[in-house]
Write a structure and sequence with these properties.
216 residues; mainly alpha; 7 strands; 8% strand
């Protein structure tokens, strides 16, 4: 899903700054779900559904390409093609002075910027009538809380949010290891990855029974 926000960054980049690779993948999956491009299957797997949407951004396109076979969201975070896409996503963030060395983790400036955006864009009070772009921004900034409010069924079926976890001292992304708090710089992925195919084409739905995408 192309296009930025009032912040000037695409939601998956904002999520990468605030919650690391699991958060960026979460936002990409939500974007694909809103476009009807993924469906859920058994054991919290996801797979591509139907033809690729028009004007799909490079990061979301890579995630979709990886779903030609069923994968869980956690498996997606570790996929070589996704790891490469994350490394490429870091480049403009590093050029903007938001990532520190040597591991290209968000620095204090990045954390302040995300905190400012989160204060400027609080969690919506209701889900009804929210535009897709606003939904993605809410998930990028508020993690599990936004998923439970705006996309509860998809988040549960896809394993993106822990329905029993309450936010404590930060914004939680359940897709991260354990109970990942977005304000911790505990990323375990490499900034490099094996180059894989990135050509986008039509995708046939193949998750099988037990899921079903559908809107929340």
């Amino acid at each position: 899903m192309e296009g930025g926000t009032e912040t000037g960054w695409e939601p998956h980049r904002i999520a990468l700054l605030g919650g690391g690779p699991p958060a960026a993948v979460t936002v990409a999956l939500v974007a694909l779900h809103l476009l009807g491009a993924v469906e859920t299957g058994p054991r919290r797997t996801l797979c591509a559904a139907g033809p690729e949407p028009e004007r799909l951004g490079p990061f979301e396109g890579t995630v979709l390409d990886c779903l030609h076979e069923p994968l869980t969201a956690r498996e997606l975070v570790r996929h070589p093609d996704v790891r490469l896409a994350l490394a490429l996503t870091r480049i403009p963030l590093a050029e903007d002075g938001l990532l520190g060395h040597p591991w290209l983790r968000p620095n204090r400036s990045a954390r302040r910027r995300v905190a400012f955006w989160r204060e400027r864009h609080p969690l919506p009070a209701v889900a009804h009538g929210l535009a897709d772009g606003d939904t993605l921004l809410a998930v990028a900034l508020h993690g599990d809380a936004a998923l439970r409010l705006l996309l509860p069924r998809f988040a549960l079926r896809a394993g993106l949010a822990d329905p029993g976890a309450a936010a404590e001292g930060g914004v939680r992304f359940s897709l991260g290891r354990g109970r990942f708090l977005r304000w911790r710089d505990e990323y375990e992925d490499s900034v490099s990855g094996d180059r894989g195919g990135t050509g986008h084409g039509d995708h046939a739905a193949g998750c099988g029974s037990g899921g079903g995408g559908g809107p929340d």
